[in-house]
Structure formats: structure tokens, C-alpha cells
What does this fold into?
Amino acid sequence: MSELGLGENERLFILTGAGISAESGLATFRGSGGLWNGYRVQEVATPEAWETDPELVWRFYSMRRRDAMAAEPNLAHRALATLEQKLGDRLYLCTQNVDDLHERGGSQRVHHMHGSLFQSRCVRCEKPFADRAFYENAAALPVCTTCGAAVRPHIVWFGEIPLKMDEIYSRLAASTHLLVVGTSGSVYPAAGFVQIANQGGLKTIYVGPEEPLNAEAFDTIFLGAATEVLPSFLL
Ligand code: OAD
It folds into this structure.
């Protein structure tokens, strides 16, 4: 942990974004090759899109399920899992990603603030459940086995509130270091964590191949791919 400079009683909050899964072959959202280039955000990732065209929404998330199932965790996911083994409870991993590559890379405790690709929930009962199925035509859209209402992806869409924000803010307040990996700093509230960290006196570090939009808020920026930079944090 030489690069992080974490002392014995210090605590690390990690925020990851799409960039950490880029080298596993999963498209990021913005920039060339971004996922939204093929599908417009408004068409697939809002409550309004769901109201208008649930079939399109389910086709989109079925495609993302397929892509995530075909992907493998990379060295960056594995490095964070190793870090968790070393730090235990002193590490809190919060991801904006809905894929399961952190878990498959060995991380035990991951908070998915934007939901999980492999969970769905009834719009009425609201309880999330494990679901790895593909729903790709109107006749096959899922309904709740208990109440018969529609079943939607357990994903936080634009305009919805990310999951467990209270827990996130209290873990942020209890940490001494914030490490942010592979996120463009353009989607709030996650993009604002670094400002909160600065107010709380945390040391703030960013890792990614280019500067994020909120670059000026970080103490240190390591420019490089997550798979190259993160393993060096373990030395
Ligand atoms: P973005 O697509 O906005 O940003 C991806 C970031 O990853 C960019 O800053 C890239 O420079 C960086 N990157 C690319 N390759 C990398 C690599 N090998 N190692 C490290 N970084 C790399 O993705 P997010 O910031 O995660 O929300 O997007 C935030 C949210 O917007 C997503 O969670 C999603 C989306 O709309 C919802 O679905 C609610």
C-alpha cells in the first residue's frame, strides 16, 4: 500500500466506475465506443423509458446481462479484492457498476449503489431477487409470481435515488482516504463524493487513463489503466 500511504488505523473508501471493467471488455458509458452510442440514455435508463417501452428496456438489460456473463474480472478487480483481504473492515468498496466482476474477482463485500444487473424486482412488491434470465420479446416480459405486476431490472435509473446513500455517507465520513477508479465524474451523487471527502479532510486519489471532469478536486491523480496502476498499490 505504498502508493496509498495508508497507516495502521486508517480507513479506505473506494468508488469504482465503468472504467474498471473496460479492460474486461465491457463498454464504458461515455466516449468513443460508449454503450450509449448505440442506445440513447433516455430510451433505456429512465423511469419514463420503462413506462413507454418496457420491451426495449428489457432488451437492453438482457444484452448487458449477456455481455457481463461473457466477461471475466481483470487484474484491477483482483487487486481490490487482495486489498480487502489485507484491510478487512477498514475497506469499503462502493461501485457504480451493475456488473458482478468485483464479486467474481474475489471481493466479499461490495455495495452496488446503482443496483445490480443480476437482480430484478416487482414494481409493486419491490423486493429484489436473483435473476439471470433474458427477456427479449414482448410476449416474454416477466411478471411477479406473487402479485402479477410487472418485473423490472433492479437498476437505479436517471432520476432515481442510488441505494443506501446513508450508509455511503457514514462510511465516507469514517474514512481517511478516498480512492476513485475509472469514472468520468459526470454522474451525481457519486461525482460529488470527492468534494465531501475534501470537506472531511480525507486524502483523495484518482486512477484512470484520463482526467475526470472533477479532476481539480483530487489530491493525487495516477494517469493509467486500472490494471496497470492498482496492482502497484499492493506492493
Ligand atoms: P463513464 O463511461 O462516464 O466513464 C468511464 C471512465 O473510465 C472514463 O473516465 C474513462 O477515462 C475511464 N477508463 C476507461 N478505461 C479505463 C481503464 N482501463 N482503467 C481505468 N479507467 C478507465 O462511466 P461512469 O463514470 O462509471 O449510471 O458512469 C457513471 C454512471 O453513468 C454509470 O454508473 C451509469 C451511467 O449512466 C447508471 O446507469 C445509473
